[in-house]
Design brief:
By secondary structure, this protein is an alpha/beta fold. The protein folds into two domains: 41 residues, no CATH class; 85 residues, Aconitase, domain 3 (2-Layer Sandwich). It has four helices and seven strands; from the N terminus they run E-E-H-E-E-E-H-E-H-E-H. The strands form three sheets. It has a three-stranded parallel beta sheet with strand order 5-6-7, covered by helices on one side. A two-stranded antiparallel sheet has the order 1-2. Strands 3-4 form a two-stranded antiparallel sheet. Helix 3 links the parallel strand 6 and strand 7. It is flat and about 55 Å long.
Length: 135
């Protein structure tokens, strides 16, 4: 049996936990650490960004106001998520603010060259769901 630090339990079952065991999160985190700071904090490189229509307009406005280019637009993926109907996506969005946010997302994606899973796209969906399948 492997050298174990402790055990973890699932119901009535108990499993040994090796000293050197690393979770999937540990492995992903370690692969993205740029530098560890003495205080114990890590600086990490985020290599993929998922955006949606609710909060991205503010970020794009800030880039424009500061005249900054978008870094690595090919590493961003956008989807219309929070303000879209589940059914009848071929119809215009009825609520004006929701429609405006989705339109602004579409406009920004075209302007900055970002891939968009917009209304009617076969992969359009909840940003937290489509993210893990994005390669």
């Amino acid at each position: 049996m492997a050298d174990t630090a402790s055990a973890y339990s699932f119901g009535k079952l108990s499993y040994p936990y090796p000293h050197n065991a690393r979770t999937l999160v540990d492995k992903i985190w370690d692969a993205h650490v740029v530098r560890s700071i003495e205080s114990g904090l890590d600086v990490v490189y985020i290599d993929r960004h998922l955006i949606h229509e609710v909060t991205s307009p503010q970020a794009f406005d800030e880039l424009a106001a500061r005249q900054l280019p978008l870094f690595r637009p090919g590493r961003l993926l956008a989807t219309a998520d929070h303000n879209v109907p589940t059914l009848n996506q071929h119809l215009p969005i009825a609520e004006p603010l929701s429609r405006s946010q989705v339109d602004k997302l579409t406009e920004n994606c075209q302007k900055y060259g970002i891939e968009l899973y917009g209304l009617g796209h076969q992969r359009q969906g909840i940003v937290h769901v489509i993210g893990p399948s994005w390669a």
